[in-house]
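Incident log, support desk, overnight shift.

02:14 A customer reports that sequence design results differ from what the structure should imply. Their input is reproduced verbatim below. On-call engineer (initials T.W.) acknowledged and began investigating.
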């Protein structure tokens, strides 16, 4: 998704500010800075839809729920509440984290599809926020290069591995979950 810093007047916002903003414009709030989200392009939508179908099919009958954007994730809701992200896809297994408005705390799995207009948001800024929040597994999907970077939480760092469109990407936290990337990237 394309993201740009908004022209809002304050320099630091919290979730209390965020919930008062116009729903016609989607925002993320990272360390108190608001970023407007552009509508995803066609390739992004295809990838997101294909990944959602695979995750949802795998999670049926299990204790975990799959969500897709727009869906608010308050990463530090208990420590200042100034970061609200809308990952492209996420899996939450702890139902106590879910309320009517979104997820409060770190999901188990987050998937972000990199925006060509601002890849640094997913590759660096969100990467660090997800790491600090304790997201157990983070997938960074690059539609242009047809690569997926799998980041697995190991203590206080991520161990990363890159998969190509010819690979099966195995989840390290969900036994039996493996996604054929050729099916995900075909005809893009």
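02:41 Re-run completed on a clean worker. Output:
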């Amino acid at each position: 998704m394309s993201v740009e810093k908004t022209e809002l007047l304050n320099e630091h916002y919290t979730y209390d500010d965020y919930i008062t903003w116009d729903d016609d414009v989607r925002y993320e709030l990272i360390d108190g800075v608001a970023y407007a989200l552009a509508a995803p392009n066609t390739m992004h939508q295809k990838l997101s839809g294909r990944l959602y179908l695979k995750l949802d099919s795998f999670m049926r009958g299990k204790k975990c729920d799959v969500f897709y954007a727009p869906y608010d994730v308050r990463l530090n809701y208990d420590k200042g509440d100034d970061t609200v992200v809308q990952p492209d896809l996420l899996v939450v297994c702890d139902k106590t984290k879910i309320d009517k408005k979104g997820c409060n705390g770190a999901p188990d799995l987050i998937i972000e599809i990199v925006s060509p207009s601002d890849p640094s948001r997913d590759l660096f800024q969100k990467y660090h926020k997800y790491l600090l929040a304790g997201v157990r597994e983070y997938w960074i999907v690059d539609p242009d290069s047809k690569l997926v970077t799998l980041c697995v939480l190991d203590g206080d760092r991520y161990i990363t591995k890159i998969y190509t469109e010819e690979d099966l990407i195995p989840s390290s936290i969900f036994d039996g979950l493996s996604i054929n990337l050729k099916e995900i990237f075909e005809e893009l």
